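**User:**
Everyone, produce one record:

**Assistant:**
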Amino acid sequence: MHELFVAGEVDANYLKSHAVRPVVAHSWQRSLAGGVDPYLDGARDAVTTIDRLRETHPLAPALPVIRRLLVDDAADSGVVVAVSAADGTLLWVEGDPTACRKAEAMNFVPGADWSERSAGTNAPGTALALDRELQIHGSEHFSRIVQPWSCTAVPVHDPATGVLLGAIDLTGGDQVATAQTLALVRATAVAVENHLALLRIAGVAAEPAARRPHLVVLGGDRPRWVTTDRYGHLQATPLTGRHADILVLLSRHPEGLSADHLAVLLDDKDLDVVTVRAEMSRLRKVIGAENLASRPYRLSTPVTTDVDEVFAALDAGDVESALARYAGPLLIQSVSPAIARLRTQLSTTLRDAVLAEGRQGRTDLLRRWLDLPDGRDDREGWQALRDSAGLTAVARARARGHLAGLDFELG
């Protein structure tokens, strides 16, 4: 399956229908789309100042806990224990000396970038990309050099703010991709978070890691920029429609956009570049100059969005979570062609996933979709609900009545 996919002969849907786990198929898809070479001989180096990064990282005070619970027992077990930062940079790699030397051949060493966008599908990188615990079995890795290994990774969060700090990973043979190993790494992550909380209570730890700014643009409410103040209180700043458009586009283009490119994306009649620059100047005052860079325009601070949360849940195959995060269409009043395209992409992807689940018996998800503005006129969805097995007589009658109403309205 891996060879067929890399060669472009099959897509992710084909993979999923041939026993490749959805979370792996979607990760391979992201890896390939992001330009990861499956035949590289190892991960890239991420930083040159690893010592400084270790000293200042929030997980550093918890390293003794990780060593006691994992590293001490890994000394002669063929297992490597790795701790990574939230961006995928490996901070500490310890454990069985022989296994560590073998892992060096694929640059599984401190300072290497094992994020999914750099190294392709792997437990720590993909766990960080999805912010969920994950096990990757040998051949599920995207990079061929990593396929002799299996791994289990669990994200670690700041106990005060919930912000993602990094991940704890076990890498080795097949024995590290079992339910028992997952339970062990999960328990270690909980112990680390509790240790950090106790240190903070005792007044001997650093300040809580700041939560990333969050962009809310789904549903009928006014779009807003949500931040956390120094006391941990959330602050929501309302945004104009144009500013929300710009922030969504910048969040989808981390490489940055020129004023000319932004003008085309914002208005198919091409805005005047002077107008775009004026809007960027006003936006900088709204969200803070430290969050917005120029030449090209780009977000200089990592930002989360409710759009990305829905896409991430779908990529992980968690349709229920995606539906729970979907408050409604993206910036429904926006006339930006780029926003309209993204709006359609998000709604259609979620709809198709819900209908697929509905046909497999998840009528609860189907009903929730049909109650949304997107689903009220979804004739195919109402037909799927009407034809679902196990539906009560009243629910089936309601579906039939809704279909009759749609047919009457649409002729």
User: Anything to note?
Assistant: The first helix runs from residue 2 to 6.
